[in-house]
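Q: Can I see a sequence and its folded structure?
A: Here is a first one.
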Amino acid sequence: MSDPTSAQPPHLSVAGDTADWHRLHPLTPVVRAGRGIIAFVVAVALIAIANQRNNSQLVVDLVVLALALSGGFISWLVTRWQVANGVLRIDTGLIRRDSRRFPLTQIQAIDVVQTGLARVLGLAELQLRVAGSDSKRSGRLACLRLADAEELRRELLALSAAAGTLQAEHPPGLAAPLQGSAETGVTSSVLPVPGARVSPEVIERPLFRVRSGRLAVAIVLSRSGAIAAVVIAAVVTTIAVTGSTTATASFLPFAFGIVLAVWRQFSGEYGTRVAAAPDGFRLRSGLIQITTETVRPGRVQGIRLEEPLVWRAFGWCRLAVDVAGPKERGENRSEGRRLRALVPVGSRAEALQMVDDLLASRPMPDRRAPREARLKGPFQYHFLAWGSDERYVVTSRGRVCRKTTWVPLEKVQSIRWVQGPVQRRLGLATVNLDVAGRRVTASIDDRTQAEAGELFGRLPDLARAARAG
């Protein structure tokens, strides 16, 4: 294997059975340490102004900053990547070497992410989503030039599709052909022939684009916006009554957290655009950090349509999907629990059209709850319903925030019978359909025991038939 000599990803080619090693962009340490460096510089500047630090203390701070940058440079220097034999390999580490391999056949999607500093420098990060892995074990190539990252993403997706085709045609135990295929453009090592272009430009069909003004108003009228308004009103009232700002010190951390959460939601969903492409649905969003993601229909675990009470007055709703991917940990845990909003806020017609694009069929919740359910939930009784066909189950519930959930039967992991003390008294029961991760659960609430029993016995056969079909 040759040493890494290039910071840019040329077209992947083979020399024998091994592709060349490549390095990340030289400015990668600056992007990775961007937030930390900015916070450090601001803190040092504030402390220097407040305490009037002397030159010797300033030199110490500069040395600390230089050490931080040198650590990032060393990390960049010992990080390299290659694609060979249908596997993406990323090696890093100076004292403790870390070598990660990602078979292209297991890649679910590849996202292109740009932080604010990366956008200024014209760089981007590639994030590989592999089903069943967590964020610590997911593949990340940070950073590459934006054009190179997009080109590499197209090539890896093409290689992944070609590798999957070969794996289906030649399962383990059967010898793969040694010659290249004119149709797939790959050799036995699941790499393109030298000099061949892997994936041409594809034409995208726009499906949805969020309106910025509507998004801002919708967030203000949401639960987060209401909490932020209450906190701000409490701070202003306290200052007006006491005439002093010191009394609001205990509110500031909570207020900062609420405002930051609202800002993150607006910044993350700003400019959301969805387009249809041959490899799935292209989702682009972000104000400062731009994320480009491909959602393949086969990765969708569930779809949820939310209609908050205040939004219903304007005819607005939100459509989000639960997508198979890495389990987030640490600082990304809250992001891992959040569904991906294809329609952050839009009309009901726009949301239902997106559902039609995602699903082969769209059953509606037309089977109302029995009369006994009125005694258990008099306010949400009229919104309890469910429906199904041979491929999907749909449920609806909620009065303050009406939620309609579609779950593919082929994605169902478990089916649970739930019956609380009140339900036992009224002769009712609930049947829950769980998918991977349980971020979306279809709950067929408050059915009669006879209907719940019939569903509990029939749904496993329907799920098995959907997976087989």
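Q: Show me another, different protein.
A: A second, unrelated one:
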Amino acid sequence: MENNVKPRAGFGTAIGVLAATLGSAIGLGNIWKFPSLTGTNGGAAFVLVYILATLLIGLPVMISEHALGRKAKADAITTFRKLAPGSAWWLVGVAGVLAAFLIMAFYTEVAGWVFAYIVKAIGGGILSTDPEVTSAAFANLITDPTQSLIWQWVVLVWVAGIILFGVSKGIERMTKRLLPLLFLLLVVVGIRSITLPGGGEGLTFLFKPDFSQLTWQSVLIAMGLAFFKLSVGMGTMITYGSYFREDQNIPATAARVMLADVAVSLLAGIAIFPAVFAYGFEPTAGPSLLFITIPAVFSSMPGGSIFMVLFFILAAIAATGAMLSLFEVPVAFLNERCKMSRKTATLVTFALLALVGSTAALSNSSMANFKLLGKTMFDLFDYATSNVLLPVGGLFICLFVGWRWGYPQVKAELTNGGKLNNERIVRAFFGIAKIVTPVLVLVVLLNGLGLF
């Protein structure tokens, strides 16, 4: 370990703060999880519930994390040690760092599939209108241990390389360049999708609510999705908040991120569902929608091979922004708490993720029969983070802000010491974060544990 740690870095510009935070929130959850869950839970009615859950759960937790991070100017664990010294609140930070690490362990494997599909799409390896052919192509990828590991390592090298450049020159610079490209590609693919004959049925599915299709379980799934998609409860927003400028308007920034995140999700839906309906495929394909149904859909349309390549490039871009924030959480901890240089912290995190992540990468091949608690390592990491660590983190973050930190501290931080005229917004946020959000998060947690 090196003892001479450089002064703490931060984001250089207000637009850089927004780009990096938005890059963290936007990920495969928008391109993969949101469309698949919308397809299996009734379409537009599910979308409305998700947006409401985002307002009452995701947004308050995000604002809370940003405020805590900027106040402490530290990693997720040290933040609570600074703000609540001598207490056990630092364990909330531990849960966040652990969640970020375990999510990266399986998320890099899914991202590896996306990167592999860019190459397959360019080479025509998944160009088929037959879902059985695209299913076989996907099965060949995930059951091949060599391919699984290589593509996961490609993703890790890509993300670690950006992280090595630092907060401003690495994360901020890359997200400022990638996000406009992401929006552009989504619009291009979306326009092509809605101009297909019969595509209007997909837009109806996405935007015309049919509440008879909505179940109580769908409501709970929408509430849980609000956590996963906005990257809250996992230490990322505390870490990014610690890099915020002192004049950053936290409530406004978080609201813009939430709105942009919802917009990207809807654009992804516009890119996918009209094409799915136009060619007679089922929107209820679930998680396989991205890797099995989408290639078959794009193969069915004129010029589909080009749009398929563009689609998987935009999915890779979305995954990159999210992985940068996840990777940064343990790097910041090792850099600041363990006094490692940023380079050493990045390399240690890379090595640990390559080791632990390999168990997730091999869950469909060499380690398919190795299970803990009845789950493969991939499924165990997914379950432990989505169902336990994220809601636990979000619950205690809100409890800390509402009941331990208190309104005077919250007001001072969110009004920038009285410089912003937004006290009504702060009061509304505080009331929701103190009472409403913890109750809803507790419901998500109990449901995830199978107790509700």
